[in-house]
Specification:
The complex is a heterodimer of chains A (647) and B (171). By secondary structure, chain A is of the alpha+beta class. Chain A has 17 helices and 27 strands. In chain A, strand 13 and strand 14 form a beta hairpin. In chain A, helix 6 crosses helix 12 and helix 7 crosses helix 8. Chain B folds into two domains: 109 residues, DnaJ domain (Helix Hairpins, Orthogonal Bundle); 53 residues. By secondary structure, chain B is an all-alpha fold. Classes of the chains: A alpha+beta (647), B mainly alpha (171). At the A-B interface, strand 19, strand 21, strand 22 and helix 15 of A face helix 3, helix 4, helix 6, helix 7 and helix 9 of B.
């Protein structure tokens, strides 16, 4: 039997699996004929695991053992804001694991996030195997473009635990663009506006025949359709509070009902101008009185509730366009991805922002999985039929003294890429050099995501400054970061130890696989009759021949949780003795001051005065005057700055 | 469809990597325009992208990966006029075939700064005078001084920008 590879869109709320064979792309529906499956896991008392809509029904009936929105937690540190929020809201138990990782406790068992996601992936794998009538072991799995290395690595681990060889971790908007443009001989610049259940991404791509080049990507991993639901929940809770002087937020049971009602109302509003929300028995008072909640919500009111959320997405769009060096006029099309983009308020907003009608000929729930399937097939076939030239979404930075960071690889740099920085020892006969690696756009280390602390040892002993170590930072086509080091003079590779990463170690992954956690997922039998080939479906044809699909199909989403601010990275113990950047200042903003200081630094290889470095960082900031926006007429003095005031 | 690469070709190129400048790597003339740079990036990536070479043995895949990473680096520098300028300066000065991206950005920033102040003593002098004119809102005088500054530094983009601004205020 021919080798086959599938594409899986592992979503916050729903997941979708697709396959591309002989030029045809099929979305593979689950046993219930649904093209998407809820990313919800229920673990029963007997240890058996259910995934999908059946599990989702348990959010209300068996909340402690039903895990949803795991994607919001995967690859995050326990102390992050997102995790704090989830702990306050989720009925399932979130506990701290080793290295500040997040674990989920269900009865006597403790699961890592990759294990939970592995259960969902195993379900998607089973669905594909049942539909295809053959085993499947290879997949392309998608992630939000703005996912950092920790999140990508954790997702990759999840796939391995599920028994899948990951051909590629692919960015969701890139996958969508591939599904949109594959085989159509397009020459277009497009924006992919991807509003999912829990994340928002925007990518600007240039499509030229079979080359899909990402020009820029930007995103917000704390903004999604769930946040839209939360606005409705707040509205309903406030309304009830005003009427009955009872805060429904304090009652988990009532809150779950509000969530369901809010989500339903939101979906209904993509079809109707207004909706009557009724929860007949939202709460029973201590006196035994059953209270109900009623509210008439208009589309207009809903739009005003979420107006600021829409604005947040457009700010991210501004950033991506600016990074791509474009304005919306330069675009040939806007592709919508994600269930929430079915909402009228989103479609109108996107149309007004980009000044063009967004494309509606691709199904926003399925397009990502389809793109992943296309890429999976082309990776298997060797003769690549499409080239995806993607970028790294976040700047890779190293920690320097003073709690600051210095960029090594800026965001929107094409991958694969490697960059080398040279470090030297600060003390005589120093045994090791330690480097902290971050991802993010801030100068402040604490505002970026810590990927890990790397310790390099085993190089020859020497006086301070004598030993120079080339540290190479590599980002591969999965967007995953690798760091290696070698002694410059001997060329000998140094040994590496990574600490402080919340991810799973190789041995942990092996032991999880041996325990067979994913094997406990019980999948509903798909009737054999419907097994192998599916009848051609509208959206499958849409690839070749963009077709008319009804735009409004209510999105399915699990209950929602409020938005969370960006989590702060940990402030690990700093040992400034260990790290000295010598080769160059790497300050993107540039200035005379920086250059002089840099020369000093470069010359005195051993020197590496951290304070000086820190100062440069600060100055660089000040000096990075945006030339476009600067007007000599308003600030005649500004040009003197680099010359006179800095030294 | 990707061109197939002979193992000897891959090995040879991987060995040569340190001796090729970005233009040679992408098969570009030094004066290539931005559209040409993009075309060359697409063409070379098509050949060396890891996706197009998955069937190679590990040692060759590693070589291809290193070439692909260098191509990304070359593109990242040459597509960005500021970084490219910094790189060209380095090439002329025999400073090496590679430039680290953050280094290129920093260098570009320095070049900008020196451009902003003038690169020649006379250019700087007249630019300073233009600045005081501007501060006094004497736009015609500023334009004259900027024009003079430009005779010393005919390709100073910043001076040109300021001149255009001053002229627009005269009217």
């Amino acid at each position: 039997m021919a080798q086959i590879a599938i594409g899986i869109d592992l979503g916050t709320s729903n997941s979708c699996v697709s396959v591309s064979r002989r030029g045809r792309v099929d979305v593979l529906p689950n046993a219930f004929g649904e093209s998407t499956t809820a990313s919800v896991v229920n673990i029963a008392a007997d240890g058996s695991i259910t995934v999908g809509n059946a599990a989702k029904a348990n959010i209300i009936h068996d909340p402690k053992h039903t895990i949803y929105s795991a994607k919001r937690l995967i690859g995050r540190y326990f102390f992050s804001e997102e995790v704090k929020k989830a702990r306050a809201i989720c009925a399932y138990e979130i506990v701290e694991g080793e290295n500040q990782s997040v674990r989920i406790r269900v009865r006597d068992e403790v699961f890592s996030l990759p294990e939970i996601s592995a259960m969902v992936l195993r379900e998607m794998k089973s669905i594909a195997e049942a539909r295809l009538g053959q085993p499947v072991s290879k997949a392309v799995v998608t992630v939000p473009a703005n996912f950092n290395d920790n999140q990508r690595q954790a997702t990759k681990d999840a796939a391995r635990i599920a028994g899948l060889e990951v051909l590629r971790i692919l960015n969701e908007p890139t996958a969508a663009a591939l599904a949109y443009g594959f085989g159509r001989g397009l020459h277009q610049r497009v924006a992919v506006y991807d509003l999912g259940g829990g994340t928002f991404d925007i990518s600007i791509l240039e499509i030229g025949d079979d080359v899909f080049e990402v020009l820029a990507t930007s995103g917000d991993t704390f903004l999604g359709g769930d946040d839209f639901d939360d606005r409705v929940i707040d509205l309903l809770a406030d309304h009830f509070l005003a009427e009955h002087k009872i805060n429904l937020r304090n009652d988990r049971f009532a809150l779950e009902k509000l969530k369901v009602a809010a989500e339903d109302a939101k979906k209904a509003l993509s079809l109707e101008p207004s909706v009557e929300i009724r929860i007949p028995d939202v709460l029973t008072t201590p006196g035994g009185e059953t209270l109900s909640l009623e509210y008439a919500l208009s589309e207009r009111e809903f739009a005003s509730l979420v107006a600021d959320l829409m604005q947040r997405t457009f700010k991210v769009c501004d950033e991506a366009l600016q990074q791509a060096g474009m304005v919306s006029r330069d675009l040939d099309g806007v592709i919508l991805v994600g269930g929430p983009t079915r909402l009228g308020v989103v479609r109108r907003g996107v149309r007004d922002y980009f000044q063009m009608e967004p494309r509606t000929d691709v199904d926003p729930d399925e397009v990502v999985a389809m793109g992943a399937a296309i890429h999976a097939a082309s990776l298997l076939d060797q003769g690549s039929e499409a080239f995806l030239l993607d970028v790294t979404p976040l700047s890779l930075q190293i920690g320097v003294a003073g709690g600051l960071t210095e960029p090594v690889i800026e965001r929107n740099t094409p991958v694969p890429i490697e960059q080398t920085r040279t470090f030297t020892t600060f003390n005589d006969f120093q045994q090791s050099v330690s480097i902290r690696v971050y991802q993010g756009e801030s100068r402040e280390a604490s505002e970026n995501e810590l990927l890990g602390q790397f310790e390099f040892g085993g190089f020859r002993a020497g006086r301070r400054g004598e030993v120079e170590i080339d540290v190479t930072f590599e980002i591969n086509t999965d967007g995953i970061v690798n760091v290696t080091a070698r002694d410059r003079s001997t060329g000998e590779a140094a040994s590496t130890r990574i600490t402080l990463s919340s991810g799973l170690s190789e041995s942990e992954i092996s032991s999880i696989i041996n325990r067979g956690v994913a094997d406990r997922v019980t999948t509903d039998n798909i009737p054999a009759a419907s097994a192998p080939a599916q009848p051609a479906r509208d959206e499958l044809v849409a690839l070749q021949k963009p077709a008319q699909r009804p735009a409004q199909k209510p999105a399915q989403k699990p209950p929602s949780r409020p938005p969370a601010p960006r989590p702060a990275a940990p402030e690990p113990e700093i040992d400034p003795n260990l790290i000295t950047a010598v080769e160059f200042d790497g300050d993107g903003s540039g200035s005379n001051a920086a250059s002089e200081a840099e020369l000093e630094l470069g010359d005195a290889a051993a020197g590496g005065d951290e304070l000086e470095l820190a100062d440069i960082e600060g100055l660089g900031e000040e000096l990075s005057v945006d030339r476009e926006s600067e007007s000599l007429f308003e600030e005649p003095g500004v040009v003197d700055l680099a010359d006179d005031e800095v030294s | 469809m990707a061109d197939t690469l002979a193992p000897t070709e891959i090995r040879a190129l991987a060995r040569l990597l340190g001796e090729l400048d970005y233009y040679q790597l992408l098969h570009l003339p030094r004066d290539a325009g931005s559209a040409e740079v993009k075309r060359a990036y697409h063409a070379t990536t098509r050949v060396f992208h890891p996706d197009a070479n998955r069937s190679l043995e590990p040692e060759l895949q590693d070589a291809v990966r290193r070439i692909a990473m260098r191509i990304s680096e070359a593109y990242s520098v040459l597509r960005d006029p500021r970084r490219r300028r910094a790189y060209d300066t380095r090439l002329t000065g025999q400073g090496g075939m590679r430039i680290q991206l953050s280094e290129a950005s920093a260098e570009a920033g320095r070049q900008d700064a020196s451009e902003r102040n003038g690169r020649t003593p006379q250019g700087r002098r007249f630019f300073k005078m233009a600045q005081s004119d501007l501060a006094r809102k004497q736009f015609a005088a500023a334009a004259r001084n900027l024009q003079t500054a430009l005779t010393f530094e005919p390709d100073n983009a910043f001076f040109k920008e300021q001149l255009a601004l001053a002229r627009s205020r005269i009217a």
